[in-house]
Design goal:
This protein is of the alpha+beta class and about 425 residues long. It is built from 16 helices and twelve strands. The strands form three sheets. A five-stranded antiparallel β-sheet has the order 1-2-4-8-6, with no helix packed on it. Strands 3-10-9-5-7 form a five-stranded mixed β-sheet. It has a two-stranded antiparallel sheet with strand order 11-12.
């Protein structure tokens, strides 16, 4: 598809047509349409990029919509300094049903007014008015959900229009290729991830996370490729491996960056940022990240969470923040069954062990090799921690335990 030509307006123009040669455009919008990746019952967001074309004076702007009950604009008005740029966000409020007409809406429009005088923008409500220019933008509803809906209803015109505007969505149609002999079908979780169906993703659950398609892609790869930020966050919370590579060596983060999905990339990086902050005991960063509430429960290749990392490092404040916030289970296990209490013992920090016990950690918890925290403390020679665990109900082991694990595990002979 040819690159979209930015729309521009002149000081006295009232249409989106080319201004007369005597008038100079004040503003241009990089996008030629407001492209919404629609998902039912979800907020759908898109950014519009404005650029001032005036070399010496500020340009005031105002954004209006024909459907104010459906759309929010932030900020709805402002001013651009000479030759500067700004980004505004358009948010579609949650809608229970697909648009009556798509991809292009017949009812929804946006109007970007511009003027060298902010007063002119309000002189005639709903129109450019004297001294103000205007750019009219149509709304294009696309995204994986509507593409699948169009394909399922055999609306070839809608499918063609969506793919022309959003060619990266072509993999969404792979499950529909059943008519092609020997065509590989996507697993249910892949299909749900591609169309942005969070409810179905939750229903299928963590047991479906290991599935891959013929190109080695996980459901997290597919969600990242489709720009489905909410599904990406849901999959990360379920424990999807954000570090796994497909057959081409690309991680989900690589895919999101290739597609330019900044929100998805931010979520995929967030769990790594949480892990780094937990490892360092950086409370300020942890508080900021935990405030985002999504993409926090990621795990590394050993299944370790941020709470495991904080525990082995003995960062008590970080442990209290991570476990006390409710976003991480104090009994979460890594690939070998280690819980945060096991790793606090391994790290040799009695204060961390005491804190986890105070917060309800199971003193009798066992790894997959049947090792308890007390057995680990005794084997590793941490007498003070062993005494603490006994005082909190830990029972002495009859077996000898031998160290060996992802970080160093204990197994009972």
């Amino acid at each position: 598809m040819a690159a979209a030509k930015p729309a521009s307006v002149a000081a006295n123009s009232t249409t989106a047509a080319e201004p007369p040669a005597s008038e100079q455009p004040l503003l241009e919008v990089a996008e030629e349409e407001v492209v919404i990746d629609f998902r039912p019952n979800s907020k759908c967001r898109v950014d519009l990029r404005l650029r001032s074309l005036h070399p010496s004076l500020p340009v005031a702007y105002k954004v209006q919509t024909s459907s104010p009950l459906k759309f929010l604009v932030s900020p709805p008005r402002g001013a651009l300094q000479p030759l500067s740029s700004a980004t505004i966000r358009v948010v579609l409020r949650p809608q229970p049903h697909a648009p009556q007409t798509f991809p292009r809406s017949r009812a929804d429009r946006f109007l970007v007014l511009s003027s060298l005088s902010a007063a002119h923008l309000d002189s005639i409500p709903g129109s450019a008015g004297t001294g103000a220019g205007a750019i009219r933008l149509r709304v294009f509803f696309g995204g994986p959900y509507l593409l699948r809906l169009a394909a399922d209803s055999a609306d070839t015109a809608a499918v063609r229009l969506i793919l022309r505007r959003q060619p990266h969505l072509l993999p969404v149609l792979e499950p529909v290729a059943a008519a092609v002999p020997d065509a590989e079908q996507w697993a249910p979780l892949h299909a749900a991830a591609a169309r942005g169906d969070c409810g179905e993703v939750r229903r299928l659950g963590p047991d479906a996370l290991e599935a891959r398609d013929k190109d080695g892609r996980t459901s997290l790869h597919v969600a990242a490729a489709a720009g489905e930020a909410e599904v990406v966050a849901e999959l990360v919370e379920m424990g999807a491996d954000a570090a796994v590579a497909d057959a081409r060596g690309r991680t989900p983060l690589d895919v999101a960056r290739e597609k330019g999905y900044k929100e998805v990339a931010d979520i995929l990086q967030r769990w790594e940022q949480v892990m780094t902050a937990a490892r360092r005991g950086d409370l300020q960063s942890l508080e900021t990240l935990l405030g985002k509430r999504t993409g926090l429960r990621g795990r590394d290749q050993y299944g370790l969470t941020a709470l495991h990392v904080a525990a082995i490092k003995g960062h008590c404040d970080a442990i209290a923040l991570l476990a006390g916030s409710g976003c991480m289970d104090i009994e979460c296990e890594d690939e070998e069954g280690h819980r945060p209490l096991h790793l606090a013992v391994e790290g040799g920090c009695a204060d961390a062990v005491d804190l986890l016990l105070d917060m309800g950690a199971d003193v009798h918890a066992r790894t997959k090799r049947d090792a308890t925290p007390l057995q680990m403390a005794e084997t590793m020679g941490y007498d003070d921690i062993a005494q603490l665990l006994r005082s909190r109900g830990g029972a002495d082991a009859a077996q000898l335990c031998v160290a060996s694990s992802s970080s160093s595990s204990i197994s009972c002979a």
